[in-house]
Write a structure and sequence with these properties.
27% of the residues lie in helices and 18% in strands. It contains seven helices and nine strands, in the order ββββαβαβαβαβααβα. The chain starts with a strand and ends in a 12-residue tail after the last helix.
């Protein structure tokens, strides 16, 4: 399994934005335990070497949210990637193997600030990390031909900023892959973000946009509006509603370009931290930090990527 890092990997917490690096975590197999973090299995990849497992492939990048440190990031995202790639042993009889995607890669970025007050100050780091991520995708000598994303929380902003840069590269010679699917879970972005002109190129590039939201998300109910108000005062070209996409779902204009490609699923019993496995918090009856709720999310993601009937119906968007 490959891990993409946009942060200083020498420290677990508080790492700065760095140029993109790629790490290999192996072997990842059914017996792999993600807690404690298997750091001894993580090795740096020389980008001059061919990456045969992703060259010309469909790669899905999984991006964490705010206040997630290095080890928490690659273990939570790694536990999800392990199952979707078909290498895990979540439960007897449970198979989350996603056949339409060749590889899943966790993505780490420096969003692990300690105090909530730091949240509105993240946008500068997000934009730097997004540019470095886009440069990696556009200029890797053996990169993927098709890319997708699963995001959690503030990872939605990271991906929107990244895709905007991937499809509008700043230098000649860039290779632009097909941008396939994005699955936004608990997205900490405004509910009208898909009609924001700032991200028009990104929205236009996605073949399919999927939103998973929950009105039970207390973090997005209380912290998001306060953070947005401060963020707008701090950053140029940052606007939008104070209602989160990941809590109340998408708000689209009647003529929105996103309408023809978006699906919305309400996961209305989930709190903010319940979408992904959490290996540091074991759940009885499950392995690697999975729970019944995170399993529901993964089953839905599997169905979305493989174009099979979803376990919950999509909601109508007004």
């Amino acid at each position: 399994m490959l891990v993409v890092s946009l942060r200083d990997m020498a420290v677990d917490n508080g790492g700065a934005v760095t140029p993109a690096t790629v790490w290999r975590l192996q072997p990842v197999e059914a017996a792999t335990a993600w807690s404690p973090p298997p750091a001894q299995l993580l090795s740096h990849v020389d980008m001059a070497d061919p990456l045969a497992d992703i060259a010309g492939a469909h790669v899905c990048f999984i991006v964490h949210g705010f206040n997630v440190d290095r080890d928490g990031g690659y273990t939570e995202l790694g536990a999800l990637a392990q199952e979707l790639e078909g290498g895990g042993a979540l439960l007897p009889g449970e198979d989350l193997t996603t056949t339409a995607v060749n590889a899943f890669a966790p993505v780490l970025w420096p969003g692990d600030w300690i105090l909530p007050i730091n949240y509105p100050f993240l946008l500068g780091d997000i934009r730097k990390a997004a540019q470095n991520f886009a440069d990696l995708v556009n200029h890797s000598p053996t990169g993927p031909s098709r890319i997708s994303f699963v995001t959690h929380s503030m990872g939605a902003r990271v991906v929107l900023e990244t895709v905007q840069r991937i499809v509008t590269p700043r230098s000649a010679g860039a290779k632009i892959p097909i941008v396939d699917t994005v699955v936004f879970t608990a997205a900490a972005v405004s509910d009208d973000v898909l009609d924001d002109a700032t991200y028009a190129a990104a929205v236009g590039a996605f073949r399919r946009i999927v939103v998973l939201s929950s009105v039970a998300d207390e973090t997005l109910r209380w912290a998001f509006p306060a953070g947005e108000a401060v963020e707008r005062a701090l950053w140029f070209n940052d606007r939008g509603d104070d209602t989160a996409l990941g809590r109340d779902g998408p708000k689209l204009k009647p003529n929105s370009p996103a309408r023809s490609k978006i699906s919305w699923y309400s996961m209305d019993t989930l709190d903010h931290s319940q979408y992904l496995p959490r290996p540091s918090e074991p759940t009885p009856g499950f392995v690697n930090g999975w729970s019944a709720k995170s399993l529901d999310v993964a089953r839905l993601a599997q169905a979305i990527f493989d174009d099979t009937p979803t376990p919950v119906p999509a909601k109508a968007i007004s």
